Write a sequence for this structure.
């Protein structure tokens, strides 16, 4: 007589069935770990992008402050130049008026002589 196991030749071997389940669980675990690793890499990249963006925003803020200071200085200088221009124009008008008055006086004196 041939010794056969109690589960028979057509029945699956419990040890093989257990190994198949372990293999399937291992594959699922490896897949989950790969997905987790991918998510961690994406998050790290997003953090780097966010840090780079924050650095750019800070640089833009510094540029804006510098430009605002330059603009304020330029406005002050422009107002000083406008004021000086008005003073010079007033002095020129006064000088022109004085010259005309002298020339008019000379004309009236020359006609009388």
């Amino acid at each position: 007589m041939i010794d056969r196991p109690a589960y028979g030749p057509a029945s699956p071997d419990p040890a093989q069935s257990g190994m198949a389940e372990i293999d399937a669980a291992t594959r699922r675990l490896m897949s989950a770990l790969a997905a987790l690793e991918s998510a961690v890499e994406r998050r790290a990249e997003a953090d780097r992008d966010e840090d780079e963006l924050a650095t750019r925003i800070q640089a833009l803020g510094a540029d804006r402050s510098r430009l605002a200071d330059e603009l304020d200085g330029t406005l002050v200088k422009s107002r000083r130049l406008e004021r000086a221009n008005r003073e010079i124009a007033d002095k020129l008008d006064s000088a022109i008026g004085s010259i005309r008055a002298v020339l008019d006086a000379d004309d009236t004196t020359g006609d009388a002589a």
In short: Residues 33 and 44 are 16 Å apart (CA to CA).
